Amino acid sequence: MIKLLNMNNRAIKLSPNSLNLYLECPHCFWLDKNLGIKRPPPYPYALNSAVDALLKEEFDTYRAKNLPHPLLKENHIKAHLFGNQKLLNQWRNNLAGIRYFDENLNATLFGAVDDVLEFDNGQIAPLDYKSTGSTAANVYDRFQLQLDTYTFLMEKNGYKTPHKGYLAFYIVDKSRGFIDRLPFRKEIVEIETNPHEVHEIFKDAVNILKHPQPPAHSSDCAFKKFLDGAGGFN
Length: 234
What we know:
By secondary structure, the chain is of the alpha/beta class. It contains 8 helices and 8 strands.
């Protein structure tokens, strides 16, 4: 008998990455969360993680001094950095994050934010750092879902939001050479967030996990195509 990890054994906990996997392929999502069978991991982006850590340190320095960050000032973003460092540290923590427990679903949705902006009217919005070697600041669907989810979680925790999220892109500027230093071009992108659809996606994903058998692969699932090409499992 197959032993499911989530069904009646432990509470279900999902993140924006989990919801994205569910939308990409319910079958891969079910295998991941119920059996611990994960897709092959992507190439580890250690450099991205290092940039992320350095950006947190930089933004926190401006926060501690109560100074506007140059990226916000230069792009005329009329907001300041969220002032509660202790709470932000909790929201950043992958083991804690900002979370919402749905009693009817007996499941938790959580996310680890990079940063938070606060407006003069008390509203807050998520700010996520993105470092890339691409030539442009590409806003992928998974980024939209990520900021939608953060907005949803903020509202469920009693905060008002402007239904906006921000992506701070640090793009490697290859035109300036290396010279023992990696130059970046900086851009910030404001996007409209839609938290209203997040709960429905969350509910559907949780209900999928409660099924004793996995649903079919998505028709465009690259991993299904790979298995089909390899002859599948015997």
